[in-house]
Amino acid sequence: MTIVFGVFLLTLMLITAIAIVRTQNLFVAVMLSGIFSLLLASNFFLLDAADVALTEAAVGAGISTVLYLSALALSAENERAPYSSHRLIALAVVSVTALLVIYATFDQPRVGDPAAPVHQHVAPWYLEMTRDAIDIPNVVTAVLSSFRGYDTLGEVFVVFTAGIGVLFLLDKPGARHGGTQTVGRVRLRHYLIPRLVGRMLIPFILLFGLYVQFHGEYGPGGGFQAGALIAASIILYALLEGETRALQALPRRLLTLLIASGALLYGGVGVAGMLLGGNFLDYSVLASDPVKGQQLGIILIEAGVGITVTGVLLSVFHAFAARGRF
Amino acid sequence: MTALQAHLPALQVVVPMLSAPLAMLLREHRLSWALATAASLCAFAIAISLTLSVIDTGGMRYLMGSWPAPFGIELGVDAMSALLLLIVTGASSLALIAGASSLDREIEVERQPLFYAAWLLALAGLCGILVTADAFNIFVFMEISALASYVLVAGGPDRRALPAVFKYLVMGTIGATFYLIGVGLIYLMTGTLNLDDIVYRIGEVAEVKPILIAAGFISVGLALKAAIFPLHVWLPNAYTFAPHVVTVFLAACSTKVALYVLLRFNFVVFKPYLEDHDLKFAIFLLPLSLLAILVGSAVAMFESNLKRMLAWSSVAQIGYITLGASLVSVAGLTASLLHIFNHALAKSALFLALACLAISVSKLRIENIGGIAKRMPWTMAAFLLAGLSLIGVPGTAGFVSKWYLITATFDSGPLGILLVAVIVVSSLMAVVYIWRVVECAYFRETDEAQSAREAPLMLLLPTWAAVLLNFYFGLFPGVPLELSSSAATLLLGQTP
Amino acid sequence: MNFLGIYYYWVFAILLMVGFYAVIAKLNLIKKLIGLSLFQAAVFLLYITVGKVEGGTAPIFASAAGERLFSNPLPQVLILTAIVVGISTTALGLGIIVRIKEEYGTIEEQEIQEIDRQ
User: A71 and C97 in contact by Cβ < 8 A?
Assistant: First the structure.
């Protein structure tokens, strides 16, 4: 049964991808990308990657769709010349790449083979050590925030960079002869049903976000997904009530502070480990009992991730939305 | 002190990284400049200290979060990373000091705190790539530095910076994704991400194909990032339209760091495992390097935009670096690594001189600078002297690495003569394009130059510091040479 | 399972192709960016496929203890990071596109080139 379902989802995904590339209406392309992300998330779920599925759904189908739509409102809705003159060269380059990949997969171990080298070396150690040294149920969270916490620190700073990048680009005063339709005006205020349903949804999304934030050690979730969900609920609020209301609730300066403080909280936990006699990002020294210390460290850094992600996503949204008002 | 010493590899990244949010929060642009400069100088001091201990002990290791390798992420500093750390942090510090008087003309003061935060992130990202010993961690830090560089380039006042940066973003992301595919294939076959552990476990892999394809993907992805000919198309415009001091910083570091990762993977990971890998590597890289050298220099000769001229010259210089590497010998790699160092010195001095010129000249085109040497003698003298180093005149740093490159090519048999000829021809081309500028500045007259004034001291000082370093390392190439040659022996897997 | 396994690799290859093609051949900047996302999504699928263990479950210890087979957590962690990197790149790219539209009045590559040539 899973086979049929898997093949079905994968095929649907391929069809969606091709449709995305073929359509000339950018609005349709963005909507289809949202659907593509949901399909991808379902595939991840089938492949036992619950955390990744949750993230892909929140990011790909939620946040990135909102960002694309904001950008579309400021730029164009259709593409004019669909293909460049070198489409044959492009096709050749792409085909060679794909053939190489397929060639490489000939010798690859069968998918799901428990004896494959990939499952023999590092992974069992993670499963074992999560139980012994950190003692939380979600191994993905343990690897993400402790064993490979340095990667996650980097990830937070990637988000941070993107946030300051968009603010830097769109804070520039000057020529604004762009959009015809503005995000500021695309409000749902005049539509009764979306507004009512939306209003009812907001508290639940927010609550779910908080649940995901603090439940990351036990089930799928964590700071990043939570940040995306919380940001989504506030963006929904902005769409329903107008961006000004949302900005009154969470002013720009506060968002900037959120972005910086989340990143600093994460880094600070790392430095604290250093000051208390461990290495950078060593949470074991944070409490007298190393296991408790690990758990404390994970809660703190996940909070840092959540704060920065919420701040960045909201700032980026507002930066796009404000650009449209002139 | 010893406790602090042990943490240096981590601090190398953490100091600039955690300064970035602070720089963003400071609202006064002078303060955030001061913070960025202090953090960058601090990173430079850490790099020097790391270099000293590498020379003493041969290398340093650091376990992030105290988790044992290969399960946690390990940092490792050796001669090669120390050499590049010096370049990256040094160039960043010089460029930031110069930026104090140069950036106000290009970026509104309200936006400057964000700009300095992005600068620190670019620095942290580049340092992060250099100190890490983990394949996936390289990807993460590559993306930090890449995203931050896009922001820096987009700060350029000319609107053409925007399409240039978009192209840079697309090609950079393709490069990073290719790298990610390669790392995925390696992980699939070995089950590990730690570079040393990969080297150890790759020998047990029975099937060659995935590793071969991984080598291809990783090399092409990094070649995109390193602007190796013909994948350099993003470079000239990105360098031309970036703010001047950003060009100084990026020209000295960003492509070099990608080259560092490229060399590391090809020599340390793939060469011992894949049969004849060095031969294939050379066959691919050698013609491309020669083309890069010739095409880059030729285009530079006919380019009248000064920044773009130097950008094309960078394409050619990257060719020298890959040429040395494609000889696959200790001498060749030494020359190649030394040229990374020396080219960074020469190019940052040249771009700094252009930043000085830009204070008085609105458009950095060759026809606008006629007679400017009378008004800006210090600036043009710096340009001339740095140009000598780029050409490779004896007594300058540029000469040392070209000399090593030529001796290395002579060792490579009958092909050597041809290679030497290419090097000599392109050096002559460099004479032509540097001379065009010098001639125009010293012996022509234009109206615009009459009102020009000498650049402020805060700009001239870093420029001249870079120029003098070119001569210092031309006469006393001891430290970079030692680092390069021990890095070369390390790459070829011979005990030094 | 074997058929599905091979199918996953093929879908990865084709997705890679579709996304990469859109990046190179499309002239609309937003379309290029969407192509880039598809291209990256293909790589995400590769990693997650690699981490799957037959008969395994998501690597979360259930309260009812007992030895169960878990899928490999590491590729999932890596892809969590990669997804975040991807959205960050997209956000920055969109920011640049909006500025290009403001400065040039178009987001078609060849039109931008024509304007620059003048």
Answer: yes
Distance CA B77, CA A244 (A): 50
B347 near B91, Cβ under 8 Å? no
B-contacting chains (≥3 CB pairs under 8 Å): A, C
Binned at pLDDT 50, 70 and 90, residue A176 comes out as very low
Residues of A with CB below 8 A from B192's CB?
121-122
- Neighbour count for residue B268 (Cβ, 10 Å): 18
Share of chain B above pLDDT 70, in %: 99
What tokens does B319 get? 């060719």
Give the CATH number of domain C2-55+69-117.
Answer: 1.10.287.3510
> Could you report how far apart the first and last alpha carbons of chain A are, in Å?
55
What's the pLDDT at A180?
39
Domain that residue B325 falls in: 291-496
d(CA C16, CA B495): 42
B71 touches chain C (CB under 8 A): no
Collect all residues of chain B within an 8 Å Cβ-Cβ radius of residue A268: 18
- What pLDDT band is residue B110 in, cutting at 50, 70 and 90? confident
Amino acid in position B147: L
List chain C domain ranges: 2-55+69-117
Q: How far is CA C58 from CA A4, A51, B219, in A?
A: 20, 9, 34
Instruction: Give the residue with greater pLDDT, B211 vs B449.
Output: B211
Chains A and B form CB pairs within 8 A to the count of 173
State percent of chain B over pLDDT 90.
Answer: 70
Note whether residue B180 is domain-resident: no
Cβ atoms of C105 and A79 within 8 Å: the answer is no
Average the pLDDT over A119-142 and give the result: 88
A133 close to C (CB below 8 A): no
Residue spans of the domains in chain A: they are: 1-79, 139-326
CB A249 within 8 A of CB A243: no
> Does some domain include residue B452?
yes
Q: What is the pLDDT of residues B5-26, one digit of tens each?
A: 889 999 999 999 999 999 999 8
